[in-house]
Amino acid sequence: MSGDRILVVEDNPLNLKLVRDVLTAVGYDVVAAQSGEEGVALAGSCDPDLVLMDLQLPGIDGYEALRLLRQDPRLGGVPVVALTAFAMREDRERTARAGFDGYLSKPISVRELPSQVDDFLSNGRADVR
């Protein structure tokens, strides 16, 4: 884990703390946003290597935030992974159709999260559960 910068967009303080603590402990630089608007603004200024995006956010949702991120040419190659409690097959397919590079379901596995993030950083796209 090379100190890559991970932008986590999550409005639930407990989930945000968990993801931040786990990823920081293994050497990632974690930047946090608590709304879609804040996430889009931060992505433009913090130069993330990966974005973990909750789908249900106050203001614009994760789908709209993804659409705005994809419009920014500076962020075109940055993988954006959906982070959601919706774990049905249709939900996974909807995120793929929307253009997300992957999908992580909640509750987050503390044990698996670092390797999942590493896979997304290495491969850009991955089918990680």
TrEMBL record:
SUPFAM superfamilies: CheY-like
Keyword flag Phosphoprotein: yes
All copies of domain Response regulatory, residue ranges: 5-121
Alphabetically ordered keywords of this record: Phosphoprotein, Two-component regulatory system
Domain of life: Bacteria
Biological process, per Gene Ontology: phosphorelay signal transduction system
Pfam families: Response_reg
PANTHER family noted in UniProt: HYBRID SIGNAL TRANSDUCTION HISTIDINE KINASE J
Protein name: Response regulator
Species this protein is from: Agromyces tardus
